[in-house]
Backbone:
């Protein structure tokens, strides 16, 4: 006879069967175990987990309970014979079930490696060869949990390069996809594991050895690490500057050689030597002019005194006369400076030399002259440029529109705002215009006292 229990008392045995005493006289006894169908369903659900659990067990034995120590530091650059397959942002790495510091990065799959790069610190980049993977499996997303890919790994080789961890208690890692994309990534990774392309195209050994200094980035922490990183950056900057100036020096040497060559050819054309037709001569001269002046006036040729500025003034006429005629006969000295130096190529002018040369234009009776407005603005204009015509044109334009600002006037006549304002101020000085200077800006009107009287 079994043990007696108080009325309403219940107990659970080791198999999970529920026993109860009757609540009262005549009550039917409750079943001692679940129906057979229910027992069958439980066994089926547990049977589904047997194969993956066994596989995990085999991977754990093969991996010697270590996972994150498979990763090695890398530059993140693809090596020879290596091809990028797919990449996905927002991937977090778990060491087994444990969260680690690598929580937000870009995961790259190549034909040879899985590469993880930190999205904030691009210098933090590590990789694991695909040959280290035993098998992979998917883990569906849940409430508050993102989908994951579980990667089971072989033990690390004895010759493994340094990485973020020296040892770990897990035989697998999890890749958590916060921004989705795990389905396509799993498919492509499965294809690479099946094709095993890394066996057909081994990477260059010379490039693999370039990853040696990477551990220093993690070990150098604190102030010492910051100072070391700043020193490395300074050395790299110095190296880049040295290489840039070396290339610039080579370019200047080549440019001087090309200038000498163009002078030689120009002299031969001038002397009419060789079988060169007139059309070829004209075409070649146009090429030289498009590159710059064939024979620029330099201090080496004419010294640094008055003779140099006189020759420079004559050369300015040849450069500026056509552009001045196209632009209404007047240009600011800033525009002139840019135009002249662009034409001279390597033999650049200083602003002081340009001003001194422009001051000699009128004394040499050349078709150009330097003009200084009351505001101090300096311009170069043609000798044929008449002040009265300029003022009359400004008055006519302002009268047609009723009133204009210097910006509106510049847009209408097609010149710079600086020159447009000087022209309006000159017309005001001569009494043809008057101004309204308010918070909205300076606006010019026709002077009705002059026109109506």
Residues:
């Amino acid at each position: 006879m079994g043990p007696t229990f108080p009325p309403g008392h219940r107990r659970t045995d080791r198999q999970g069967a529920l026993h109860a005493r009757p609540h009262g006289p005549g009550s039917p006894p409750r079943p001692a175990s679940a129906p057979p169908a229910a027992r069958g369903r439980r066994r089926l659900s547990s049977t589904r987990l047997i194969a993956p659990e066994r596989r995990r067990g085999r991977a754990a034995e093969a991996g010697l309970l270590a996972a994150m120590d498979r990763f090695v530091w890398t530059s993140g650059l693809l090596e020879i014979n290596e091809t990028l397959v797919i990449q996905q942002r927002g991937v977090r790495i778990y060491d087994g079930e444990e969260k680690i510091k690598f929580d937000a990065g870009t995961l790259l799959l190549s034909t040879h490696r899985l590469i993880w790069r930190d999205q904030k610190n691009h210098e933090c980049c590590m990789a694991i060869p695909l040959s280290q993977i035993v098998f992979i499996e998917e883990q569906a997303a849940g409430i508050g949990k993102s989908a994951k890919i579980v990667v089971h790994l072989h033990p690390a080789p004895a010759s493994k390069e340094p990485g973020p961890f020296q040892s770990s208690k897990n035989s697998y890692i999890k890749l958590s996809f916060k921004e989705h994309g795990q389905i396509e990534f799993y498919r492509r990774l499965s294809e690479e594991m099946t094709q095993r392309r890394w066996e057909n195209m081994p990477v260059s050994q010379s490039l693999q050895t370039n990853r040696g200094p990477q551990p220093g980035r993690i070990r150098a922490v604190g102030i010492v690490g910051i100072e070391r990183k700043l020193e490395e950056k300074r050395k790299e900057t110095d190296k880049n500057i040295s290489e840039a100036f070396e290339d610039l020096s080579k370019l200047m040497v080549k440019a001087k050689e090309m200038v000498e060559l163009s002078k030689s050819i120009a002299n031969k054309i001038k002397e009419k030597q060789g079988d060169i037709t007139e059309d070829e001569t004209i075409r070649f001269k146009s090429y030289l002019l498009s590159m710059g002046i064939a024979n620029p006036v330099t201090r080496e040729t004419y010294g640094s005194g008055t003779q140099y500025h006189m020759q420079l003034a004559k050369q300015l006429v040849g450069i500026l006369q056509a552009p001045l005629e196209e632009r209404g006969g007047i240009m600011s000295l800033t525009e002139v400076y840019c135009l002249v130096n662009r034409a001279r190529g390597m033999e650049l002018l200083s602003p002081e030399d340009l001003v001194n040369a422009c001051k000699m234009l009128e004394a040499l009776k050349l078709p150009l002259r330097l003009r200084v407005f009351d505001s101090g603005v300096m311009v170069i204009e043609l000798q044929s440029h008449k002040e009265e015509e300029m003022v009359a044109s400004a008055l006519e334009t302002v009268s047609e529109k009723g009133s204009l600002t210097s910006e509106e006037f510049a847009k209408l006549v097609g010149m710079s705002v600086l020159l447009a304002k000087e022209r309006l101020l000159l017309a005001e000085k001569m009494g043809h215009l008057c101004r309204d200077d308010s918070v909205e800006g300076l606006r010019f009107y026709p002077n009705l006292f002059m026109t109506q009287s």
